Amino acid sequence: MDARNAASSSSSPPSSSKRSEYQVFLSFRGEDTRKGFTGHLHAALSHAGIRAFLDDNELERAEFIKNQLERAIHWSMISIIVFSKRYADSSWCLDELVKIMECRERLGQQVIPLFYNVDPSDVRKQTGSFAQAFEKHEAGICEGKHEKEKVQRWRNALTQAADLCGEDLKNADGHEANFIKRILGKVNNLVNSKYQLDIEHLIGITSRVKVLSNHLDIENSGSKDVVRMIGILGMGGIGKTTLAKTIYNKFERIFEGRRSFLENVREVFANQRSNGLVGLQEQLLNDILKGEGIKVGSVAKGIDMIRERLCCKRALVIIDDADDLQQLKAIAGARDWFGPGSRIVITTRNQHLLKQVEVDSTYMAQEMCKEEALELFSWHAFKRDCPDQEYLDLSKRVIHYCQGLPLALRVVGSFLIKRSIAEWECHLEKLERSPDGDIQKILRISFDGLPDDTTRKIFLDISCFFIEKNKDYVTRILDGCGFFATIGISVLIERCLVTVSEYNTLGMHDLLRDMGREIVSENAHGHPEKFSRLWKREDVTDVLNNESVSTFPIKF
């Protein structure tokens, strides 16, 4: 833009503590297109919700102009260059172009050249009107206005830009409205593909993604027209959401930006009920259709809109932390709501929910092995991939305590960072007696979500008395207490609270066991006689020897 002082290619990138407010930087010759084509393009981008830098009206004056231009170019996701007949007349535009191509080379930025009533070969070879402009620039070398090296950089930048995949007005039959529509579609795809979900410390994710990718079957040409629904199942804190985010980021290119990540569905529904579902429906429609403020009004209307408007769209939809059939019926009630080749991924703690919607396959999220756990813990406790040597034995104690649960590794690691060895030892002793509150808060969601008190009692009994006991034996005992254990234990298995080994013995994660025992003893303030269950020999002995205790509403 010829009214601005453009950044020199030799200048260093501006320092900035945060990204620019712009997603697109528009480079153009103001006298040629500001009040016409470029103005219309900027308006279309703005209407689509894309923040585009336009001209010097958005800049402060004087010495601040250069730095702000550098910042706008450097931090923009995409640069659009409007090559018009007189573009190369402006040394400011050419300096700007050099900076854009430099950022493309060093930072991997996207550059879209537009050929507005100019031939791409004229830009590439500096012929036609571009030859006339460079005759003046070459003359400027002799007059001392330009350095020879700078003019050569201008030529190189024009050649490189013209070789990129761009858009030519001729291909839209000279129709500017259609031309802008094509540009907008291209920018939309690039902008949306740039949005990657933030995931910290992806340890051990590669092998897991490989297995899950086989379930998704996205890249198999034989299933490209099939809609598949996949479940990711596992206990709280085991990394289901992290895995889903990785899949979301990995396959965005294949789905051309048509993807939606609906996070914390259970929590949204619990807090807002039908209003929450409406919000999720609106997010889904806006994400896939790239709409601006699509409203549905009601759950029923949202279902109709999803079914009607997405049935031809190939999309990737992640429904994170679902726990109720009503949620899925409102968002992804049937496969034919989405276009051929779509993939719907549901993360949940409830296997029965996946059975209800008849998913095509289920991936069971796995705990971390010791090596993976140590690395993840180290990133949170030491900000690197291995612990300090003097903390190694203590770190191994943490790994043993966390039992491969990523949530626990993150929580404990973040708490222990920059603490002394004495503080580590004290905290580990505390954890062995009383579970961490932040970890328990996440795990307890599954317990609180159980369908009735009887099933909760069965869970507490197993956590206190029946770990590694034969399932049939435990069932007979609990049935004798009137607990309907056959269905109750089945529900606990489906909710990932209890496991059954190949030898038909019951088990559960150590942190779930600790949670159950903490629930038994809560509000008792350390007095075993107030516990609803006693599982430690010393507590049983103390209570039986306590003459002041006359009745025992307690299980031993």
Distance between the termini: 83 Å
Helix count from the secondary structure assignment:
25
The percent of residues in helical segments reads 40-55%
Mean pLDDT: 86
Work out the number of β strands.
Answer: 12
User: What do we call the CATH homologous superfamily of the largest domain?
Assistant: Toll/interleukin-1 receptor homology (TIR) domain
SSE class: alpha/beta
The side-by-side strand order for the widest beta sheet comes to 2-1-3-4-5
Strand content is 5-15%
Write down the overall geometry.
elongated
Radius of gyration: 31 Å
Number of domains: 4
Secondary structure layout:
Layout: E1 24-27, H1 30-33, H2 37-47, E2 52-53, H3 64-75, E3 78-83, H4 91-107, E4 110-115, H5 120-125, H6 129-142, H7 148-162, E5 167-168, H8 176-194, H9 205-216, E6 228-233, H10 240-250, E7 259-262, H11 265-272, H12 274-289, H13 299-309, E8 316-319, H14 325-331, E9 343-348, H15 351-356, E10 361-364, H16 370-382, H17 392-402, H18 406-416, H19 421-433, H20 437-448, H21 453-466, H22 471-480, H23 485-494, E11 499-500, E12 506-507, H24 510-521, H25 537-544
Parallel strand pairs: 1-2, 1-3, 3-4, 4-5, 6-9, 6-10, 7-8, 8-9
Antiparallel strand pairs: 11-12
Helix pairs in contact: 2-8, 4-7, 11-12, 12-13, 16-17, 16-18, 17-19, 21-23, 21-24
